[in-house]
Design brief:
34% of the residues lie in helices and 20% in strands. By secondary structure, the chain is α/β, with parallel strands linked by helices. The protein has three domains: 6-131 and 269-353, Rossmann fold; 146-262, Rossmann fold (3-Layer(aba) Sandwich), CATH 3.40.50; 360-458, GMP Synthetase, Chain A, domain 3 (2-Layer Sandwich). Strand 3, helix 9 and strand 4 (191-195) form a beta-alpha-beta unit. One of its GO terms (molecular function) is phenylacetate-CoA ligase activity. Keywords: Ligase.
């Protein structure tokens, strides 16, 4: 497989959208043959997995399904560069100074949360990064249609970009922002990462001081900021707002758009599949199907008909060679539409039910409310040493119930002590000083209504998601 350059990727991306469905399908098939062949030859894991798979792949169903658990269990055999080992990557990740730096000078490394119980360590090569960037610039940006007045506001605001997400770890958004600021130092004055872990008063104060004209973040964080904007404490005037990392509901989009008086765009992807989708001018998500294969499946990994909501989804990343992601199980529920989008794009429309955790609302001693972002408190919990999996449930305005499982059952008491202390300290730092953190005897389990695993949710009857 050849290294992908920016000029080649730009030219190909422009051409693909203009040459029609047959040309996109031909690209997809050629790239599937290439990545499957490369994985078979350079990855010991895929070499074994594809031992009985034909050399020529006529349809993707001939390839076995892969899971995060199995791939991570065989990390050193999964990667295609034998100089990459899990021991060395984990040592790299353990050093906070490594955030924003490339492993071995040629791979971006990130980690995922343990929302499904198994965190992943993921590497992306430079060719893949080129593809991700080009897809964003060529397909995502044109859908954001700004008036001359809004364009002037961007210029007047010196293109200040605020990203509100979990900071301090090797999460993809944090890594990419740190990498961008390290390699392009001039951006340090105009782009900043704001921690979603921070107390809301501190976050509002810092955003007001920075005065961003572009804001990106989790829908739950943006929803909270929109409420602060309506209350008058947040005084920023963004021209563009982008949501990612969680499912953006129609109600959230309306609230955020109304509060800030600007367009709200949406993105669906994952750390394994960066650049998976783009949103069109009609606010519909389209799959970049020349570089990704998306298969909506049932509980037995069998395909579901177009338009029907799946139980899961298999994703194939055709760009990344260092860690091939081929027919990889994601926990999201999706529906691929067969009808073309009225926007005119030839790329398929996808509806997504992804991460749907709740914002938790606790009472403050003063009588007010403390809003706790789900990804923020989940990150605090997941970083507890020895924790395998946990679930956080609000059952009263002043109680947080925790279901947990330790990696080593013999150390469960110690892990619980550390976990409860971390959660109590985090909630107290936010101002929720009277919340009781209690442990449930139940293990983490599927949500009784949705049948899916939800890591952070509220059972209070009048909760508004």
């Amino acid at each position: 497989m050849k290294t992908v350059t920016y000029p080649a990727a730009l030219w190909d991306t422009f051409r693909a959208a203009r040459e029609g469905q047959a040309a996109v399908a031909a690209r997809r098939q050629r790239r599937l043959d290439d990545i499957a062949g490369y994985a078979r030859t350079h990855s010991r894991y895929y070499g074994r997995l594809y031992h009985d798979v034909p050399e020529r792949i006529s349809e993707i169903g001939q390839l076995p399904v892969t899971t995060k658990a199995d791939l991570m269990a065989h990390f050193d055999d999964w990667v295609t560069d034998m100089s990459v080992t899990r021991t060395e990557v984990e040592a790299f990740l353990a050093d906070p100074r490594s955030i924003g730096r490339d492993f071995l000078g040629r791979y971006v490394v990130c980690t995922t949360s343990g929302a499904t119980g198994i965190p992943a360590i993921l590497l992306h090569d430079m060719s893949a990064l080129t593809v991700y960037n080009v897809l964003g610039y060529v397909r995502s940006l044109p859908a954001v249609r700004l008036s001359p007045r809004q364009l002037w506001a961007l210029v007047r605001g010196r293109f200040h970009l605020a990203a509100v997400m979990v900071s301090g770890g090797h999460y993809l958004g944090n890594v990419m922002m740190a990498r961008r600021l390290r390699t392009m130092r001039f951006r340090r004055r105009t782009q900043r990462l704001f921690s979603a872990l921070a107390p809301i008063d501190e976050l509002v104060r810092d955003l007001n001081a920075f005065a961003p004209v572009m804001v990106a973040g989790y829908p739950s964080a943006l929803e909270t900021l929109a409420l602060e904007r309506q209350a008058g404490s947040l005084t920023i005037h963004p021209v563009m707002v982008t949501a990612a990392g969680e499912t953006l509901s129609a109600a959230q989009r309306r609230l955020i758009g109304t509060a800030f008086g600007c367009p709200v765009s949406n993105y669906y992807g994952s750390s394994e599949a960066v650049g998976l989708t783009f949103e069109c001018s009609l606010q519909r998500l389209h799959v970049n199907s020349d570089w990704y294969i998306v298969e909506p499946v049932d509980d037995h990994n069998q395909p579901v008909p177009a338009g029907r909501l799946s139980d899961g989804v298999l994703v194939t990343n055709l760009a990344n060679r260092i860690q091939p992601v081929i027919r990889y199980q994601l926990g999201d529920r999706v529906a691929l539409m067969s009808d073309p989008c009225p926007c005119g794009s030839l790329f398929p429309v996808i509806d997504v039910v992804g991460r749907t955790d709740d914002v938790l609302v606790f009472r403050a001693p003063s009588g007010g409310e403390v809003r706790v972002l789900p990804l923020a408190i989940a990150t605090v919990a997941e970083e507890t040493p020895g924790l395998a999996r946990c679930q956080l449930i609000q059952r009263t305005p002043s109680t947080l119930t925790v279901r947990m499982r330790a990696i080593d059952p013999d150390h469960e008491t110690a892990v619980w002590g550390s976990l409860s202390r971390r959660l109590t300290e985090y909630l107290s730092a936010l101002g929720a000083t009277t919340v009781t953190v209690e442990r449930s005897d139940e293990p983490p389990t599927l949500h009784p209504r949705s049948g899916k695993f939800r890591q952070v949710f509220s059972e209070i009857q009048d909760h508004q998601p």
